[in-house]
Design a protein that fits this description.
GO terms for molecular function: peroxiredoxin activity. Pfam families: CMD. The protein has 207 residues and is mainly α. The chain is built from 15 helices and no strands. The longest helix has 23 residues. The protein has a domain of 139 residues: AhpD-like (Up-down Bundle), CATH 1.20.1290.
Length: 207
């Protein structure tokens, strides 16, 4: 009986696509997710059930995450930081295999709560992470000349546009994905105990 309860707990609130429902495009997107690691194929398997908006979103997210003028690994750092801030168990444990191949390590990820004082991060990365933290805090936190003056010291305006869109997508869709209960925060902390430590140490990341 306990195993059935655990199975029910693990089920997302919206079901995964079935094999018979998969279009060629859905199969391609799921296969790509399996290879790249992010977005996780579980969520892609939910989104692609909607052949219009869901498929369009997965394509847009892939373009935003992997293409553009900003380094992918920088965006991956911002994604992880925002994901931990809204305690999304799924998003917090997902890792991009592409970013890993580019040199992003778990040691560096573990320094995110203290990024301002860590030598692991470049000034550009620190600037982007400051913006991501403020973005997560709320719209008023980023609505100032000082915020954009800080960004302009490290980024072109074209790069700032991409960073803003990326943070908006990570924050907004991340809240939706969190509510799908693909993986609870409690389960994520069991997979990666350091998440619980972050929760205790950092009010801004956990709040």
């Amino acid at each position: 009986m306990g195993s059935n309860q655990e199975k029910e707990k693990a089920m997302p609130r919206l079901r995964y696509i079935t094999e018979s429902e998969k279009t060629p495009v859905a199969k391609e997107l799921i296969t790509s997710a399996e290879a790249k690691g992010a977005p996780d194929p579980r969520v892609v398997s939910i989104m692609t059930r909607n052949p219009k908006a869901g498929v369009a979103w997965v394509k847009y997210w892939n373009a935003l995450l992997y293409d553009g003028v900003l380094p992918h690994s920088l965006k991956e750092l911002c994604r992880i930081q925002i994901s931990i801030a809204h305690q999304c168990g799924y998003c917090s444990t997902v890792r991009s295999n592409v970013a890993i191949s580019e040199g992003l390590t778990e040691e560096k990820v573990s320094q995110l709560p203290n990024f301002e004082n860590s030598e692991e991060f470049s000034e550009r990365e620190k600037s982007a992470l400051r913006y991501a933290a403020l973005f997560k805090r709320g719209e008023e936190a980023i609505d100032s000349d000082e915020v954009y003056d800080d960004l302009r010291e490290q980024f072109s305006e074209e790069e700032i546009i991409e960073l803003g869109l990326f943070c908006a997508e990570t924050d907004g869709v991340g809240k939706f994905v969190r509510s799908l209960n693909v993986l609870s925060w409690e389960d994520a902390c069991q997979i990666d105990p350091s998440l619980e430590v972050w929760d205790q140490r950092t009010g801004t990341l956990a709040g």
